[in-house]
Write a structure and sequence with these properties.
heterodimer, A: two-stranded antiparallel ribbon, about 45% helix, B: about 375 residues, 15 helices, about 70% helix, Rab geranylgeranyltransferase activity (chain B)
């Protein structure tokens, strides 16, 4: 079981975008379910390094669409387990190397499916094994995390680590305080955060840093006025959001910016109606899926972040998403408490 | 990764299925071949070439980059064959071989970087190669590698001046060169050069927020290293305020406004950057600077009275100004209400923010 992050084969350029757009739930469900069957497409093979991410994106999208059982549970779990390595880490697909990015997706999938028991059944002490793989990637001097044994550091991995560990209930394995200090060292004058100390504010990295501070309950450290202003400045006249000043809009920033605003209680600082409309315009209304911008090729990455963006704005027909974990809210309530 | 900016194409009928199947087959055989060789620990130059071929087709295949590292790590420990050693090399044969391997690899990957400038794994792998050079070769050799990287990253940023991978790599290069110079006994700071580089980048594109941002990070260090006294620090602030005025000739330049806000932050009490430029400001000084800047911004209204950034800046600076000097009549509540009304009219997307601003400022 795997979902490729490959493109959709959309019909045609939509000539004029209708003003009132409806969410094509059934089309999106069908699109996501079709992803595993497209082995005749070159793109399917080129995106093998994203399989486990793709599965998390697809599964989460299906949950948000109210079709949690659209993928066979046991096949999903079998695929996830086939990506697990002896050291407790997960790779993108069998035969690939373990990495934080995929380990986080694996934990998210297992949590969504209430499958930590299955993990234990597959590997004795599996939960702790996974948690130790993650914990061992912490740089104890700076508090941040490596992506894998080869040493790349990025605030994304710090977030992945704390997200996964909090789902596993194993935060005590790492130096949380040091991680928080590291996030602070990445803060910029504009209230935002970058990939590391000194790096420019970027909406994706802001999501990960504010996410860390949310999980560790240290949002008091955020300059909410400044950050909220910077984030709300990301909305462009067409309703879409960009990720940095002077850049183009993209559906995925509906999530990175929107969730960050939600975490600091400033989602009302943007025009949610216009953003919803922009997201809906990025749907392929014939064959399902969302693209970065209207008329572009769809993929499962933009599909989940488009849907999650709609969910933040309480769009009818979309289940409530948790703004930190990008997973269904009720699942987060079950796993980590409300 | 995910498709960005790729237009949606017509239905599957337009695809050449046979051609695509052949392409898949070729790709899959190459993947299988590489993985088989690696699982047999065949860490040879021939397999290295196979990974190059595969990565050129798919640079996002991160495991292959790891394979490449394993091959090179193995090769680094190999004794060179006699044919490889020549007399005119300065280094012992084994180190010379490492130098050649790293140098070839760095050169080879330039093309891939230019083709895929946003691929994390390529940048990351380059960093690793340079770290290996540092560990295995004399410092002078590592320095010359990093210096070449500085040239490369300048080229990359000339192609895309906002590439944040490029900016981030540049900071790594600079930090490494500084660290290595310290190691060889004579620490060379590059902060002046880097500051000059941001100036150059800003003049070639006033909306380049990446350059403005880097400037905000360099200035505090620059002043410390210059051992700037209070006079020099004020001079720096004045020069920066002049520079940003040039950028604000286009009042719709959001990046310039963001940097202006940074500069105003450095003269605002209790801001996170309060002391990074001037350290001896009295409240009286602050009042003078705020009034001067706000006067200049008000003048911009004569050029463009429909630019929301002007009203927003006025409102934000007025709020700080009132914190510094509440009893002064330079800013009136009525004026602030007018600015807010204009802001609401010009920017309807952020109504909720303006509502909150209204109550925060008690308007």
């Amino acid at each position: 079981m795997s979902l490729v992050a490959g493109p959709g084969r959309g019909g045609h350029h939509q000539p004029a975008l209708p003003d009132e757009l409806e969410l094509c739930v059934e089309k999106h469900v069908a699109y996501i379910k079709s992803l595993d069957t497209r082995k005749d497409e070159y793109e399917y093979w080129l995106t093998e390094h994203l399989r486990l991410n793709g599965l998390y994106w697809g599964l989460t999208a299906l949950h948000l669409l109210g079709h949690p059982d659209a993928l066979p549970r046991s096949e999903v779990i079998d695929f996830v387990m086939s990506c697990m390595h002896d050291n407790g880490g997960f790779s993108a697909a069998p035969g690939h190397d373990p990495h934080m990015l995929y380990t986080c997706s694996a934990v998210q999938i297992l949590a969504t499916l209430d499958a930590f028991g299955d993990l234990e059944a597959h590997v004795n002490g599996g939960k702790e094994k996974v948690a130790r793989y993650i914990a061992n990637l912490q740089d104890r001097d700076t508090g941040t995390f490596n992506g894998d044994g080869w040493g790349e550091k990025d605030t994304r991995f710090l977030f992945n680590a704390l997200l996964a560990l909090s789902l596993l209930g194993m935060m005590h394995l790492v130096d949380v305080q040091k991680g928080v200090e590291y996030v602070q060292s990445c803060a910029n004058f504009d209230g935002g955060y970058g990939t590391g100390p000194g790096a420019e504010s970027h909406a994706g990295q802001i999501y990960t840093c504010v996410g860390v501070l949310s999980i560790t309950k240290r949002l008091d450290l955020v300059d909410k006025e400044k950050l909220g202003a910077w984030l709300s400045d990301r909305q462009l006249p067409n309703g879409g959001l960009n990720g940095r000043p002077e850049k183009k809009e993209d559906v995925c920033y509906s999530w990175w910016v929107g969730s960050s605003l939600a975490m600091i209680d400033r989602l009302h600082w943007i025009d949610q109606e216009k953003l919803s409309k922009f997201i809906l315009q990025c749907q392929d209304s014939e064959l399902g899926g969302f693209a970065d911008r209207p008329g572009d090729m769809v993929d499962v990455f933009h599909t989940v972040f488009g849907l999650a963006g709609l969910s933040l704005m309480k769009h009818p027909g979309v289940r409530e998403v948790d703004p930190i974990y990008c997973m269904p809210k009720d699942i987060i309530n079950r796993v980590v408490g409300g | 990764m995910a498709s960005h900016g790729v237009p949606r194409v017509a239905g599957s009928g337009s695809r050449d299925t046979a051609k695509e199947q052949k392409k898949i087959q070729e790709y899959q055989s190459l993947v299988e071949l590489v993985n088989a060789k690696i699982s047999e620990r065949e860490y040879t130059i021939e397999v290295l070439a196979l990974t190059t071929k595969l990565l050129s087709k798919n640079p996002e295949y991160y495991t292959i980059w790891n394979h490449r590292r394993l091959i090179l790590q193995h090769q680094f420990t190999e004794e060179p064959s006699t044919s490889e050693t020549t007399e005119d090399n300065q280094l012992p044969p084994k180190q010379q071989r490492i130098l050649d391997l790293i140098s070839d690899d760095l050169r080879l990957l330039v093309g891939l970087l230019i083709e895929f400038p946003k691929c994390y794994w390529i940048w990351n792998y380059r960093r690793w190669l340079l770290e290996e050079a540092e560990q295995r070769l004399p410092t002078a050799v590592a320095v010359s590698f990093w210096q070449k990287e500085l040239g490369l990253v300048s080229k990359m940023l000339a192609r895309d001046e906002r590439n944040f991978h490029g900016w981030s790599y540049r900071r790594t290069v600079v930090a490494s060169l500084e660290r290595l110079s310290e190691k060889s006994g004579a620490r060379v700071s590059m902060v002046e050069d880097e500051f000059a580089y941001t100036t150059k980048m800003i003049y070639s594109g006033l909306k380049n927020f990446s350059a403005w941002h880097n400037r905000s990070k360099l200035i505090p260090r620059l002043l410390d290293e210059r051992k700037a006294d209070n006079v020099a620090r004020r001079k720096m602030l004045d020069e920066e305020l002049e520079l940003i005025q040039t950028a604000l000739t286009d009042p719709f330049n959001q990046s310039a406004w963001d940097y202006h806000a940074f500069l105003m932050g450095t003269i605002s009490p209790n801001s996170s950057v309060e002391t990074v430029i001037v350290r001896d400001f009295t409240n009286h000084d602050r009042v003078i600077y705020f009034e001067r800047e706000m006067d200049r911004i008000k003048e911009m209204l004569q050029v463009d009275e429909d630019c929301k950034f002007i009203y927003l800046a006025l409102l934000q600076y007025a709020a700080t100004y009132l914190d510094i000097e509440g009893g002064n009549k330079y800013v009136t509540t009525r004026e602030m209400r007018d600015w807010l009304a204009k802001l609401r009219e010009l920017d309807t997307l952020r109504r909720g923010r303006w509502d909150d601003l209204e109550s925060k400022l008690h308007l």
